[in-house]
Amino acid sequence: MPFAIEINKLHKQYKGSWSPALDGLSLNVKENHVVGLLGPNGAGKTTCINILCGLVEPGEGQATIFGKDCVKDTLAIRRMTGVVPQQIALFYNLTAWENFYYTGRLYGLADKTIKEKGQNLLERLGLDKHADKRVGRYSGGMKRRANIIASLLHEPQLLILDEPTAGVDVQSRAMILNFLKEYHSKGNTILYTSHLMEEAEQICDEVVIIDEGKFVISGSPKELVANTADCKRLEDVFLHYTGHSVRD
Amino acid sequence: MKKTLATIIKEWILFKRDIAGLMLLFIMPAILIVVMALVQDAPFKDYQEMRFDLLLADNDGGSLAQEIKEGLRHSKNFHVIDSIDGHSLSDRELKALLLTGKYKVGIEIPKGATAEVANSANTIANNLSKKLGLGGSLPVREHRANMYIRMYFDPVAKPTFRTSLNFALDKYITYACSNELIKRVSKLSKLEGDSSADEDFGKVFEGVGLKEEALNDKGSYTKYMNSVQHNVPAWAIFGIFFIVVPIGGHIIREREEGSALRIELIPNAHISVAFGKIMFYTMVCTLQFIVMCCIGIWVMPLLNLPPLYLGAHPAALLPMAFAIGFAATSYGYFVGTIFKTTNQALPFGAISIVIFSAMGGIWVPIELLSPAMQKIAMLSPMHWALDGVHELILRNGNLQDILQNIIFLLCFGLCLWLVSIYKYNKRGHSVQ
To answer: Are B36 and B63 members of one domain?
Structure first.
């Protein structure tokens, strides 16, 4: 099976930082898979995503998405990738519809297309009745769902999500996870980060655990649990490999 | 182009929802130009068109005092008060009234002033008579020193006002002295039987006069500077540049909220979005300038101020306003890009505008600044803005006359925009 993402010995050290954010990280994400990128705080998950979507240049190493280099082919990569940032990347004083029209137009989509896709996504993520409200008046869960829709209007082949369920209620989380499963079932690839192991166990075909900027282990959640001594859940595996010490 | 248009539409939606922002952009500058025009109306008249109450204590009662009183009464600037409650004003009363601060100026004509003038005139007439061989002689006595017409000013009176009153009085005294001299010489001439001398000597004062004409190099009428002509464009430009504050805040807020990240993640969107944003606010600034001009034309006369005169080519104000708006908006974009927080950007933006305005002649006309400051003023975009507007509304200039100003402002804006884009690209972005 071809790879959607290939990361080879990525190294990144930020100015003024004592230790590298990424220290020779290598990993691959297969096409049509849901891959969870897991790691404690400061493991390098967000830096990895930033490099993949062309926001940050790596110091060394290479990353490609569908064969396109993340440094040289940023524009092509942004066209085929949808990124759901941890921040709510929406205009709070615009309604959901206004946000979608603006985002869609910037992607070069016709208004008709935006309307069709937007309506469909709004219904699937349970926001269709609130689409004419300003995003600033949404609850945390609604904002997260709207944030996902804005990243999907241009129908990306790869969806990258950075902690998409952080701070949302159980109902919203369930809706988001169901939506991601459905989206994956249509043949799309998903890379997502989370601190919630249960969630990763639930939706991921494969998880990659990284720590201190380095690859630690990868495999399907079931495989990892089965192959790690004294582990009954993914969380045990995670703690087994990353330790119990609290990270800053 | 579609992305730029989409951004303009988005900015319009956000703009119309921000009532406080609208108030800041239109109502506040409107209040500013009205208040400044009213406040600076008097200083701009520079005591030339104003009528002041002038206290006069006449201890002389002679022709010199009469000449001065008549001269002052015929002047447009003074209302002479030489009596209170039916009796002549005394020196003590004059000083007491001045100390109350109600009156700004007082003149005290000393006793014997006319006699002293007559004595001087007699002395000169006798000398002339001797040199011309007229033969006659008039009585003279020894010249008294320390004979002064004293002027008293309220401490707040401007030096220019003091000087102008000084000149006016000097003129009346000179006229009175000349008159006395003519009378004396005439008297001596009559002694020799020349009856037409009176009439001929009087013609001395009908010689070459002064007449002020206001023309520009095109030979057309030039509008005089007044409070409205200076303050409406000057403070409208200041108000336009104050757009730096909302734009700077807007850029930082979008960055902090995360919506700027959304733009960053869309291919080729950032430059189009930045251009759309700048174009939208440039249009807002142009509209703001038009509104301020309308206030100058129609509201100022309601406040007993002269209406704003837009010059012989008012249409040329539009590209000028557009260039000013572009420079101001780009500056706001620059401030919002280079600073990380609103706490850094907003004070810098606001204070730098005040500095630019002081340098650029918004507060006081640049002609009044020192030569060094006049050179430094060239660095202020507000100088180019105000100079361009003045060229149109004071000197009846046309589009060609303000091309240099427009080019400077557009280049200023473009440079800041390019620096902002460079800085934006250098700044780290993160999905977090």
So the answer is: no
Residue B6 sits in the same domain as residue B86:
no
Residue A169 within a domain:
yes
Of residues B46 and B143, the one with the higher pLDDT is: B143
Closest residue to A90, CB basis, from B17, B262, B431: B262
Q: The CATH number of the domain where A13 resides is what? A: 3.40.50.300
- Which residues are CB-contacts of A141 (< 8 A; sequence separation ≥ 6)? A168, A169, A171, A172, A173, A175
Q: What is the ipTM of this complex?
A: 0.87
Q: Answer yes or no: do B259 and A105 touch at CB < 8 A.
A: no
Per-residue pLDDT tens over the stretch B325-370: 999 999 999 999 988 888 888 889 889 999 988 888 888 777 777 8
Q: Are residues B8 and B76 in the same domain?
A: no
Residues of chain B in contact with residue A103, where contact means CB-CB under 8 angstroms, are 262, 266
Q: Are residues B40 and B53 in the same domain?
A: no
Nearest residue in chain A measured CA to CA from B7: A102
Q: Does A53 touch chain B (CB under 8 A)?
A: yes
Radius of gyration of chain A (CA): 18
Asked if residue B432 belongs to a domain, the reply is no
Containing domain of residue A221, as a range?
A: 3-87+157-242
Cβ <8 Å between B263 and A106? yes
For the purposes of burial, counting CB atoms within 10 Å of the CB of B117, is it exposed (0-12), middle (13-18) or buried (19 or more)? buried
Chain Cα centroid distance, residue B338: 36
Residue A241 touches chain B, beta carbons under 8 Å = no
Shared domain check, B55 and B29: no
User: Considering only residues 68 to 107 of chain A, which have any Cβ-Cβ distance to chain B shorter than 8 Å?
Assistant: 74-76, 78-79, 83, 85-94, 98, 101-103, 105-107
Among A58-72, B141-155, B313-327, whose mean pLDDT is lowest? B141-155
pTM of the shown model: 0.76
By the CB < 8 Å criterion, does B370 face chain A? no
AA letter at B7 = T
Instruction: Pick B430's closest partner by Cβ from A50, A150, A151.
Output: A50
Distance CA B243, CA B292 (A): 15
Residue A88 CA to residue B115 CA, distance in Å, equals 93
pLDDT for B223 = 57
Domain that residue B82 falls in: 49-206
Name the minimum distance, in Å, from the CA of A108 to any CA of chain B: 8
Domain C-terminal end among B206, B241, B257: B206
Position B295 confidence tier, pLDDT thresholds 50, 70, 90: very high
Q: Based on the structure, what is the number of domains in chain A?
A: 1
- Chain B contact set for A74 (CB, 8 A): 267
10-residue mean pLDDT series, chain A (248 residues):
85 87 88 90 88 88 90 88 89 92 92 92 88 90 90 90 85 87 89 88 89 87 85 84 77
Whether chain A has a CB inside 8 Å of the CB on B265: the answer is yes
Distance, in Å, from the CA atom of B78 to the CA atom of B61, rounded to the nearest integer, reads: 20
The answer on B246 and B359 residing in a single domain is yes
